[in-house]
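Exercise 7.
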Amino acid sequence: MHPSLPNMAKLFVSLSFLLLIHGCLAYQPFFQQQNQCQIQRINALEPITRVQSEAGVTEVFDSNEQQFQCAGVEVIRHRIQPRGLLLPSYTNTPILFFVELGSGIQGVMLPGCPETYEVSTEQFEGRKGGSAFTDRHQKIHQFWQGDVVAIPTGAAHWLYNNGQDELVIIALLDSTNYANQLDPSYKRFFLAGNSQGEQVQQIEQPRSWENLQQDRLLKKGSDNIFKGFTTETIAESFNVDHETAELLRGESDQRGHIVFVEKGLQVIQPPMRHEEQEYRGGPRANGVEETICSMKLRVNIDDPSEADLYNPQAGRCTRLNSFKFPILQYLQLSAERGVLHRNAIVSPHWIMNAHNIIYVTDGYMRIQIVNDQGQEVFNDVLQEQQLVVVPQNFAVAKQAGEQGSKWISFRTNDNAIMNTLAGRTSVMRALPVDVLANAYQLSSEDAQKLKYNRQESVLFMPGGSYTGSRGGM
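Solution. The predicted structure, written as tokens, is:
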């Protein structure tokens, strides 16, 4: 052996060790974030702040809550009136939102993508056969109640309520996503508007006050980024006059970040019936031929025929992951829509690789959550429009109330995996009977009953069928 080879091997090992240490240090903030998950008590959460604009309101949940700090996410809710426009903006986090009520249209401006929607008018005055484009822009997406919509990090976007009813959307912002390199909190950069026209109301006092500076910034609001540039720079950049440049800066705009469009928004889009047919019944994308510009940004998760779990006596669940919705691979997020009938039960379970944010949209349900020390950290009723965060691997059980319940879950992995404790596909069912008997000091007969009494997989009808001496469920 060449005498330098052992030295080279030692050098290789040393370099590998240094790279490993460097990698650990590089991810240190992530592990510090995970220390927030030593939770002894979880609370049902509601918005603590309302930001009122001309045509709607944004409700903000307390990002300082330990649950949110653990999951590294933030949640807001927009309520937009008919003909209300949420002004263009972008964020340092990916956004996944659920349309709780109403319908609308949305534009997401992706860099480098062509302006595929355009309208032209024939010019007859002094010209022969010429044409000129009066407008062209990137694709506009129609969305409806029950849709999940994805917005990549840093992509400018806007929303408009083109329906007759209030538009309500609940949005998850993943602050600790790998695509966010700014800081571990959500920041929105507006391209228009002025916070001076907003009215901020504190609904309730936050339970935690560690980040007072963030609270002050929230109360102050956010002005649009053009305000920070000089009028001369804007005028020169866009080749417009100073009056137009001043309007871009928005200093005299008192409407807030959701504004009324008096005569309705005039944009180019295909007939609704055609677009809805293309969306609902068109060929499914397999993810191979998709590009960023043509990638689907919304999927309906409320269609009963698309349910992944269905029990006529108990309810249904529809899961949305990156296999069904490829853009979720980039966002590293997923979702679940659940519907439970009266008193029906979801098998006790844990999510193996993600935090789980549960928001009730209709009715109520009792939720029990247990931590790694076997301690009950939550055992309460989650009412409509309340949410809880279930940290990764914490065990959770759900039971609907007398009127049934519906919920939307956001999960911090594009392919979140559930492991159940009871039912046909559960971990208990996978264990040998003798392991169960010895683990729980049961007779072989009782261990068999424990293992096989529930024949459903995940969604259980209430009451059960076992009436032996040890009682029902």
